Amino acid sequence: MTTQTSHQIRSTTVLPAHRENVELHTADGLTLVGELAQPVEPDGTPRTPSATLVTFHPLPTHGGFMDSHVYRKAAWRLPALANLSVLRFNTRGTSSPRGTSEGEFDGGEGERYDVAAAIELAEFRELPNPWLVGWSFGTELVLKHGADPGIEGAILLSPPLHRATDADLDRWAEFGKPLVVLVPELDDYLRPDEARRRFARVPQAEVIGVDGAKHLWVGESAVRRVLDEIVGHVLPGHPLPLPTHWEGALPDA
């Protein structure tokens, strides 16, 4: 059953998509749990996405997981609003309502296999134009382990640059793929001016300071800014800002 009317897109709004539980299998023998959300036609049949977001969540020892709110809202909205597929998953040892990924948190080192498994799943499923999106701890995973020739580029949200080193930045500079860095004005760890200094060693890095935002991107205005920036870089020319209303059917809860 569906309902048809004009809906304001709120924090809990789930727009139409094909959503399926997936498992990722790492080279060191672990099974990780996740979800893949893909765009659909008006009749509910799957549609080929224009691009793919492979997401890496914040620090699991401080509450980060695949349902961290920016990624949950990306999966709920972007298949319908921007024809994007969104892959989110729990890194090793991380739990969410979807389940618990095998293994134990390894501070960003063993997680190299998690990053590779996510990229491999996108390749195996023939998901087009994959972009890596890291948030906080997830940015460290992208910088340390994400320079894979199969990706189009990466977007970093609130990078702390705690675990990622200048050597990791130099590797990205040599890699040459686009690197978009969204830095909250009021971040707890790395603010725009310092971020511009640190990322200056990556010539292709675009550092974007976001006025008024904080590390966790709390609030609809912050989330909308993040999603607009992601879509604008992954799909140049896509109309922005993204709609605040959905003119069509919504899945029943």
Automatic annotation (TrEMBL):
InterPro entries for the chain: AB_hydrolase_fold
SUPFAM superfamilies in UniProt: alpha/beta-Hydrolases
UniProt protein name: AB hydrolase-1 domain-containing protein
